[in-house]
Amino acid sequence: MSLVDEKQHHSGTVEKSILIHASNETAWEKISDIIGLSWVLDVKRTIFLSKIKRGVGATRQIAFNNGDNVDEVIVGWNENSYLSYIAISGLPLRAYHATISIKSLEKKLIKITWESFFNSEKMSKKEFLEFRNFMNLFYKNSLINLKSALEN
After folding, report:
1. pLDDT-based confidence at 152, cuts 50/70/90?
2. Cα–Cα dist 128/138, whole Å
3. Residue 2 to residues 5, 6, 54, 66, 104: CA-CA distances in angstroms?
4. Would you say the pTM of this structure is higher than 0.85?
5. Mean pLDDT value across residues 23-51
6. How far, in whole angstroms, is CA 37 from its chain's centroid?
7. Could you tell me the pLDDT band of residue 6, with boundaries at 50, 70 and 90?
């Protein structure tokens, strides 16, 4: 096996933003409904795993159409501004921390940014780059769905 194919831990980031014609409050209402993920790509259903339903400590399980389940815990929450979460199971990662934030640009124009940092389980550089590319497209297409939901 060459060094190029050696499986190791990799770290990376993904950041995608989109401009949406909607109020900050309308966008926050959609984003802060942490089990209402109809705008997130390929989500089959989402359920609460905690008694806490909003804010830090709320825990959810997302079931995807391909059969994968990802458990996440909200670790940061600033009303009408951002929420941060970590994945605690279900991804090929040792660490995953993501934030979805809203920035008002004008009265009815906002910028939503979805960004994350992650550290992989042992995988080849090629596998890691494929995973990062998948996450880029996942964020991009989910944000397009969110824009469509909020502007209609």
Report:
1. confident
2. 15
3. 6, 7, 48, 33, 49
4. yes
5. 97
6. 10
7. confident
Neighbours of 26 (CB within 10 A): 15
Structure tokens at 124: 């080849």
- Return the closest-CA partner of residue 101 out of 78, 132, 121, 135: 78
Place of tokens 């993501």: 98
DSSP class of residue 57?
T
Which residues, including other chains, have CB under 8 Å from residue 47's CB and lie 6 or more apart? 35, 60, 61, 63
Q: How far apart are CA 149 and CA 74, in angstroms?
A: 23
Is the pLDDT assigned to residue 1 strictly greater than 60? no
Is the pLDDT at 95 greater than 60, yes or no?
yes
Among 130, 122, 92, which Cα is nearest to 8's?
122
**What is the spatial distance between Cα 55 and Cα 77, in angstroms, rounded to a whole number?**
5
Domains, the chain, ordered by start: 11-151 (3.30.530.20)
